[in-house]
Amino acid sequence: MRIPRVSGRILTWSLALAVLLAGTVIGSAMLGPVRIDPLTVSKAVLNLTGIVAYDVPSAHQTIVTDVRLPRIALGAVVGFSLAAAGTVMQGFFRNPLADPSIIGVSTGAAAGAVAAIAFPALLPFSSVHVPAFVGAIGTALFVYAVATEGGRTPVATLLLAGVAVQAFLGAVISYMLVLSGENLREAVVWMMGHLHRSSWDDVTFALPVAVVGTVVLGAYAREMNVLLLGEEDAHHLGVDVERTKLLLLALASIVTAAGVAVAGVIGFVGLIVPHIMRLIVGPDHRILLPTSALAGASFLVATDTIARLDTLPLPLGLEVGTPIVPVGIVTAALGAPFFLYLLTKREVHAL
């Protein structure tokens, strides 16, 4: 049976990027204060399935599965989420500079998380996940409500409302940081974006939302392609424009919120990765969405490995294990110069 051309491209690119992700995961799990060979890492990972039982030194098994792999897995999930949401946002706004935070989702998550960190006695949560997630979704809903009038949500109004809400929440966050006292450093590190102290519970929190949300978004790939022609043309081609915009915005916000809630504000993943993949595979969202998500997973695992391997001595007063370089700093340090390079080469175009 002949595979349709588009389906063949999706399968080929997805398999290639899945292999790249597997290699990135194995390579990251090898590196650290204790170096472990790739064969041992692979056996330790396969032991997690319960299907096989390879003989692996107990110390190495513990390092891989209990110390390194939760952080690597969370990095993959968060990168997957941010890149998928960034792809949708760039298509939604028809702007290659759009990213998951453009309507204030990340800022809303930051407000919820900083409130939980700065005033733990006032909020009935044991972690920042729930307040961060609620803050992100609440902000997205508020921005959408402000921008909607008469059943229509103009994209330009949505963008401006997002900018205004981000500015306001930025002021609220700054005020909470002033009042946070001894919790200031923890709040600042969270806002920089990090995967420090990751656990399998974090992965369990974010993974279902990321996968289900991206799959549902993939079902609207045709509509996203048609919306690139403009809302009026999309309407004439049979797309329920306002309903589709609401669904895309809601799903992208939920996927973003799940990633930001467990890892803080990590920039440039949802901006750079979809843009690079668009240059490689083209603008068809049927191919672009899954490939960007997989590439985003590999990108964040790789950048977090750089952050995790930082060997600078600890400043006075910091305990061992304190993240000296949050991964958000690494993604910004790599992403911003690369994006400027694309600008100088005139590789950034309106969609």
From TrEMBL:
Belongs to the binding-protein-dependent transport system permease family. FecCD subfamily. One of its GO terms (cellular component) is plasma membrane. Keywords: Cell membrane, Membrane, Transmembrane, Transmembrane helix, Transport. Required for corrinoid utilization. Probably part of the ABC transporter complex BtuCDF involved in cobalamin (vitamin B12) import. Probably involved in the translocation of the substrate across the membrane. The complex is composed of two ATP-binding proteins (BtuD), two transmembrane proteins (BtuC) and a solute-binding protein (BtuF). It is a multi-pass membrane protein. This is Cobalamin import system permease protein BtuC. GO terms for molecular function: transmembrane transporter activity. The chain crosses the membrane at residues 69-89, 101-123, 130-147, 159-179, 200-221, 246-273, 285-303, 323-343. CDD domains: TM_ABC_iron-siderophores_like (cd06550). It comes from the Archaea. PANTHER family: ABC TRANSPORTER PERMEASE PROTEIN MJ0876-RELATED, FERRIC ENTEROBACTIN TRANSPORT SYSTEM PERMEASE PROTEIN. The gene is btuC. It is found in: Cell membrane. InterPro entries: ABC_BtuC-like, ABC_transptr_permease_BtuC.
